[in-house]
Amino acid sequence: FEQGVTDTKQDLSQNLGNLKQKAEEKVKSKEEDIKNNVQDATQNIKEKAKKVHDNAEKHAQDLEDGAHNHLKPLVDIPDYGHMSLGGSMIEASSDSSSNNSKSASEITIGEAAE
């Protein structure tokens, strides 16, 4: 009988040791899986953040270029020597001593309509 009890104790002890080892292996495996998942998620977040940042920089550059191209014609107004309004020519002259000759800035809308 005592031998049976001793054998059973040894079997239970061995089974307990095996279960403990399997549990530790599962815990390590799960820890490794979690660690890998966190690393993958972190890498994905970094890549997405970089894409968002790059897209934002490109969009900002496109907006800046668009604004520059939109405003450039307003800044680079060509200096014509005359203006044509309704088929009549008005000379833009810096000689303001003549009554018939006014600079473009001196011509009023009413005069231009005449």
What would you note in describing this structure?
The chain is mainly α and 114 residues long. The protein folds into two domains: 77 residues; 34 residues, no CATH class. Helix content is 69%, strand content 7%. The chain has two helices and two strands, in the order αββα. A two-stranded antiparallel ribbon has the order 1-2. Strand 1 and strand 2 form a beta hairpin. The longest helix is centred in the middle third of the chain and has 74 residues. It is rod-shaped and about 115 Å long. The termini are far apart.
**Weakly predicted, low-confidence segments:** 88-99
Helix content: 55-70%
Distance between the termini: 132 Å
Q: Please, what is the average pLDDT? A: 78
Overall SS class: mainly alpha
Give Rg in angstroms.
44 Å
Shape: rod-shaped
> H/E series, N to C?
HEEH
Strand count, sense and closure of the main sheet? 2 strands, antiparallel
Region (Disordered): 1-114
Biased composition (Basic and acidic residues): 21-35, 52-68
Biased composition (Polar residues): 1-18
Biased composition (Low complexity): 88-107
